[in-house]
Design goal:
This protein has helices spanning 13-25, 32-45, 56-66, 84-91, 110-116, 136-145, 155-160, 217-227, 236-239, 260-270, 273-292, 324-336, 352-355, 365-373, 385-397, and strands spanning 49-53, 74-78, 95-99, 121-124, 164-168, 176-177, 180-181, 188-192, 205-209, 298-299, 308-309, 315-319, 374-377. By secondary structure, it is of the alpha/beta class. The protein has two domains: 13-270, Type I PLP-dependent aspartate aminotransferase-like (Major domain) (Aspartate Aminotransferase, domain 2, 3-Layer(aba) Sandwich); 273-397, Alpha-Beta Complex (Aspartate Aminotransferase, domain 1), CATH 3.90.1150. The strands form three sheets. It has a seven-stranded mixed beta sheet, with helices on both faces. Strands 7-6-11 form a three-stranded antiparallel beta sheet, with no helix packed on it. A three-stranded antiparallel beta sheet has the order 10-12-13. Helix 4 links the parallel strand 2 (74-78) and strand 3 (95-99). The radius of gyration is 21 Å and the shape is globular. It starts with 12 loop residues before the first helix and ends with a helix.
């Protein structure tokens, strides 16, 4: 029996044609296609500006560095996330302050966030886990209530006058919060377009900018554009033309721009994202629910309520009994039955890099309990109805 893969990328003739067009154009690095992709993302999420970068990880770090976060600062992150969320804080020399999750949806626990805030807190970085938006209203209330503790370390932080809200939105392109794009709820939201995401550019990411007054998001875009290309005052597109070669380097920047050849993949997929890709992923979630909700051995995920709707990225199924050992044995049997599944995620305190930094798993019991019972089912645009039925059959019999 042919194995059902976990999450292969959707590549069709439209994508191949647009990538071929870019390859034949002679312009394959950052240029008009990247700018077009940025504009489409801005309009889709109803934010003020968007800049494309080489990965979500690069985007999160770039945003933290723009805010001037560094040694002595703290950034609150969930203990239940991929390592990139905390790694970028470490890269900046700051301290990730981990909080537990709520057991319903695995998003960060709002009351735990409130208890973790100190005079060193410069940002909160929630994760829309699996594509489900965090409780933004609750986070904003906590941020406003803690203004008296906020101690700005530079002009940008002083202009903001509060803790920054920067979302790890790697999963949540298309997610809704109170009927609006989830990305519009925070000061900045960072998407991922990695190969396994709903929409891919092979590798890549984007920063949605929504900073409040007195900030000028167009100016922030220009600054980030410069920082993403070595701190150079002109990108390659701006240098192209008669006597336009001259440039300056105004900061020791980074190299994390998105090239046109990758943006073309995203642009082609984006034409079908709202009309085809998201609806198909929703159908798969609902089919899994129909088959698995009645089964006493499984707890189906919370992915939609009156306030929120997921982007249908990860179907986070959980066992109703057993623990890590039983879950791992089950996964082996599922693979043997011809279905590829995954686990999202190993909580950060279980990873050597963070265990060695003093983080202890016992301080985050909800995160561990969610993790030890979790199995992620395949969800992707090209997954057929017959394959969905086969996955359900395996999950009910195994």
């Amino acid at each position: 029996m042919k194995q059902i893969p976990f999450s292969p990328p959707h590549i069709d003739d439209d994508i191949i044609a647009l990538v071929g067009e870019v390859l034949r154009s002679g312009w394959i690095t950052t240029g008009p296609k990247t700018k077009e992709f940025e504009n489409q993302l801005t309009n889709f999420s109803k934010v003020k500006r968007t800049i494309c970068v080489s990965s979500a990880t690069a985007g999160m770090e770039l945003m933290l560095r723009w805010l001037g976060i560094g040694p002595g600062d703290e950034v609150i992150v969930p203990a239940y996330t991929y390592c990139a969320t905390a790694n970028v804080v470490v890269h900046c020399g700051a301290k990730p302050v981990m909080v537990d999750i709520n057991p319903l949806d695995a998003c960060m626990d709002i009351q735990a966030v409130a208890a973790a805030i100190s005079e060193h807190t410069k940002a909160i970085m929630p994760v829309d886990l699996g594509g489900l938006p965090v409780d933004y209203a609750g986070l904003k209330q906590i941020i406003n209530a803690s203004k008296h503790l906020f101690m700005p370390a530079n002009e940008r932080q002083e202009a903001l006058g509060r803790i920054a809200l920067i979302t790890d939105a790697a999963h949540s392109l298309g997610a809704q919060y109170h009927g609006r794009a989830a990305a519009s709820q925070s000061d900045a939201a960072v998407y991922s377009f990695h190969a396994v995401k709903n929409l891919t550019t092979a590798e890549g990411g984007a920063i949605s900018l929504n900073w409040p007054e007195p900030f000028d998001n167009d100016e922030i875009y220009k600054t980030l554009n410069t920082l993403s290309l070595h701190g150079q005052s002109k990108d390659a597109l701006a240098k192209f033309g008669k006597n336009a070669w001259e440039y300056d380097v105004i900061d020791a920047g980074y190299k994390c721009n998105m090239p046109d050849v990758l943006a073309a993949i995203g642009l082609a997929q984006f034409q079908k994202y709202a009309s085809h890709i998201l609806p198909r992923r929703r159908q798969i979630f609902e089919a899994y629910d129909r088959h698995l909700q009645p089964a006493p051995q499984w707890q189906t995920p919370h992915y939609r309520d009156e306030e929120r709707e997921t982007s249908y990225h990860l179907y986070l199924l959980r066992m109703n009994a057993g623990g890590e050992k039983e879950r791992n044995a089950l996964i082996q049997r599922i693979f043997e039955a011809g279905v590829a599944v995954n686990v999202h995620y190993k909580p950060l305190p279980l990873l050597s890099a963070y265990r060695q930094r003093g983080y202890r798993m016992e301080n985050y019991p909800n995160a561990f309990r969610f993790y030890e019972r979790e199995i992620t089912l395949p969800v992707y645009y090209d997954l057929s109805d017959e394959q969905v039925e086969r996955v359900c059959e395996v999950m009910l019999k195994v």
